[in-house]
Amino acid sequence: MAVSVATLGFPRIGPRRELKAALERYWAGTSSRAELLAAAAELRAKAWARQKALGADIIPSNDFSLYDQVLDTSAMVGAIPSLYGWIGGPVDLDTYFAMARGAQGEAHAACGAGCMHKATNVPAAEMTKWFDTNYHYLVPEFAPGQAFALSSTKAIDEYLEAKAQGIETRPVLIGPVTYLKLGKSHAEDLHRQALLRALLPVYAEVLGKLAAAGAAWVQIDEPCLVLDLTAEEHRLLAEAYAYFARAVPGLKLMLTTYFGGLGDNLDAALALPVAGLHIDLVRAPEQLEPVLAKAPRDRVLSLGVIDGRNVWRADLDAILDRLEPVARAGRSIVLAPSCSLLHSPIDLAQETALDAEVRSWLAFAVQKIEELAILARALNEGRGAVAEALAAAAAAARSRRTSPRIHDPAVGARLAQVTEAMARRNAGFAERRRLQAEALRLPAFPTTTIGSFPQTEAVRKARAAHGKGALTDAQYEEFLREETARTVRWQERIGLDVLVHGEFERNDMVQYFGEQLAGFVFTKHGWVQSYGSRCVRPPILFGDVSRPQPMTVAWWRYAQSLTDRPMKGMLTGPVTILNWSFVRDDIPRALACRQLALAIRDEVVDLEQAGARIVQIDEAALREGLPLRRGEWEAYLRWAVECFRLAASGVADRTQIHTHMCYSEFNDIIQAIGAMDADVISIETARSKMELLGAFAEYRYPAEIGPGVYDIHSPRVPAVEEMVELLRAARRRLAPEQLWVNPDCGLKTRKWPETEAALVNMVAAAQAARAEA
Ligand code: GLN
Ligand code: ZN
């Protein structure tokens, strides 16, 4: 039986982020609905044709989205919260984008003034991360007694659209159990079985229409199968797929799982009456044998052998060594990426400026499909048929194993000398606190900010001009010094206690460090969708990491020279740099993180040597690195915390180490947060009204905490009394001498006027708290 190649989804943003441009033009009102839809259709057509030309046999449709595939699913089943004023019928573009981005002000254009069709001032639906990726989806929201009805025919339309272009596709749907699991409800007990029973007829209707339109297969994504599931969830899966088998008996379903192994869900997954199963063999290679042993002979197995989540070229011979026996055994198999290619940059061929050697180790979405085509040919016709391609892949793998660009013996030697003591401060917190209080002489409720100040148009323009060579190094430097000086003096003037330099010289909190560390490269077009039109270009950590020279000391020194108040040194922590980069797959993540930790440690020590009394090490992304399975949390947290401590513990006890985390879920990781042993942690709390401090109180968190007293995500200026009230709430949970006063996060996305007003009020709130104490 011939082995075929499938892709489970292709990046939709376009090789030059065409979708971003089209969306932003439409949102700005400078292009029409028809223009937006035409741009989208063109991107789809090109993606289909391209995948076909690259050798994919099974090409997805409905993997495209104007914003988000989970939002598309909500539109498909008509799960539109009432606040969007939707009155049934096909979900229109205004409603769709109102859910995606919120809507303000404008009346429904078609009806003119006085239109009551749309709620005109509505917030966007909540957004959160898609499993352990950096892709964000819009959280479905279910009302009590939620009903569902087919409200978008997008899946069918796009199938037919491809067909009209001569391309037979396999439509993609998010499975009903995953969809429900991702959703939330304000009703006290969200009754999932009732919701599922209401949902299944709509899914069956879509599947039926797809079958009627000619689809032989549908890819139905149930990545929830790699999570810890309850017995009830297993029952929901069984009910759903039994329903589909009855309702659309002729249609073949490729039950698609990714981002991990099926583990203890394997039997439940294999028991479902579907024609095919896709498994992720990159994250969970060990599941191949049990799946082969247990899967019914007629189940088509889709083997995710090429990494859809990372950028490395695969070792094709090694994959073939594993696949050949499977193919020989007469199993019907499909080769695929581990997951949708949505999470890969699109095309390495665009990276003409990238170092040639590093480039030879990489594969983006386009190259990954080529790899799959080579593998399939090798299985179908023998390795000889693709000897040249296999030799090239082997040569790349060999050079990656041995290149001195990657392997730096000095880094290995240094790691070998790391002792346990290096990840420990000398004294315990109580003693450190005494020494630091003496060194710093801060008032009660000390005030500070998280680091960045507004990245204004002027700052961005100057950076761009410098990048293009229109500003010389000296001119740009002068500009940054002026911005920094103005910001330092202003902080001093309004009475902040611990100052920051403002981070004007930084493009991004990870990239800035990556660009100065050995072991990283950066792409020009390696964009990956984060949400909607937003894309990120993660740094590529390809080799052993070291810090050739100080990265932030000069800016710190300049800023401190302008004031007598303590100037915080400001760094991004090793775990966050790791979690926001594409990371090498030839060594364990923990080891790559330890290398980063040593590099950051060097910087912390240099800052102290230069005179810094406080150094902040941001770990904004520590929590999001948590594995999908609870059973793996402990191991992750152990090395993540150890890496932070390794970075932080090179200094004397009188040097105060701050950390910052911008999220508001600590209950389940509070012990790890405690184990980080920072002297001060600032966290996001304004929107939760200090509630999350309960976790710190219960745990008897000993050190100091800066619970954010205002939300920096909105331009709204908080009143003094509001922040005083939040500080009172904080004092009910923690001792007053534990508390710092700061915003929730950095201020880079804000404008100056609201920043000034908010911080003046914040200082007044701290003064009021001192007076009350
Ligand atoms: N120091 C960074 C800033 O202020 C922290 C940003 C973050 O935590 N996301 O911008
Ligand atoms: Zn933050």
From TrEMBL:
Binding annotation for Zn(2+) 2: 662
Residues at which 5-methyltetrahydropteroyltri-L-glutamate binds: 17-20, 129, 134, 534-535, 580, 624
Binding sites annotated in the UniProt record for L-methionine: 450-452, 503, 618
Cofactor binding: number and manner: Binds 1 zinc ion per subunit. Binds 2 Zn(2+) ions per subunit.
Highest taxon, organism lineage: Bacteria
Chain residues that bind L-homocysteine: 450-452, 503, 618
Keywords carried by this UniProt record: Amino-acid biosynthesis, Metal-binding, Methionine biosynthesis, Methyltransferase, Repeat, Transferase, Zinc
Binding site for Zn(2+) 1: 660, 684, 745
Gene Ontology MF terms: 5-methyltetrahydropteroyltriglutamate-homocysteine S-methyltransferase activity; zinc ion binding
Any one biological process term the GO annotation gives: methylation
Gene3D superfamilies: 3.20.20.210
Reaction catalysed by this enzyme: 5-methyltetrahydropteroyltri-L-glutamate + L-homocysteine = tetrahydropteroyltri-L-glutamate + L-methionine
Domain Cobalamin-independent methionine synthase MetE N-terminal: 6-328
Pathway where this protein functions: Amino-acid biosynthesis; L-methionine biosynthesis via de novo pathway; L-methionine from L-homocysteine (MetE route): step 1/1
Catalytic-site annotation from UniProt: 713 (proton donor)
Cofactor: Zn(2+)
Entry-linked HAMAP family: Meth_synth
Biological role stated in the UniProt entry: Catalyzes the transfer of a methyl group from 5-methyltetrahydrofolate to homocysteine resulting in methionine formation.
Family label: Belongs to the vitamin-B12 independent methionine synthase family.
Name under which the protein is recorded: 5-methyltetrahydropteroyltriglutamate--homocysteine methyltransferase
Species per Swiss-Prot/TrEMBL record: Roseicella frigidaeris
Lineage, uppermost ranks: Bacteria, Pseudomonadati, Pseudomonadota, Alphaproteobacteria, Acetobacterales
